Sequence to fold (181 residues):
Amino acid sequence: MEISIKGIRRKQCGIIESMAKLLHIYTIDNPEEESFLRRISKDVPKQEIEGEEFQVFLDDLIYTAQNIITEEGYTASGLSAIQVGRDVNVFCILKENSSVFEIMVNPVIDIISPTLIIDREGCLSIPKTEGQVARFEKIKVTYLDRNGKKQRAVFKDLEAREIQHEHDHTKGVLFTDKLVD
Ligand SMILES: [Zn+2]
Fold:
């Protein structure tokens, strides 16, 4: 059994440094992991969000998204819980023009513009593969933030694409299911 130290430690300069760890990314190259990636994720009960165990998991999810680099040198712009072996309806996405990842719990997407944009995508769970995918240009997302507080916001362009890609993961859908010529 692996023992890990959890919690936070305060450095002398006053900055709180997380003890978060890098999580293993499930890929379709492993048949068992591929079948896990096809699961439909479960909603997280609101009371569970504030719990220490879940907060540590969210720190680890963000830490992994921030620090992962693929063999081809790509970094992550989003990461879903299912991709690190937890079938709960949670993902993080990179906020545009920043290095901050935002957590979305139990997100619901409303399409507010029927315009579709085709652009290139890749996925940490599908190594060495890229493809063109059509996504809605503008969406409204209702979700719980990492404190369990209800949020509703409009996202467009790249952020909207990232959210739709991660939201598909929570439904067991991979971008390679949606490739356009
Ligand atoms: Zn992905």
Notes: Residues 28 and 34 are 4 Å apart (CA to CA). The domain at 16-178 is CATH 3.90.45.10 (Peptide Deformylase).
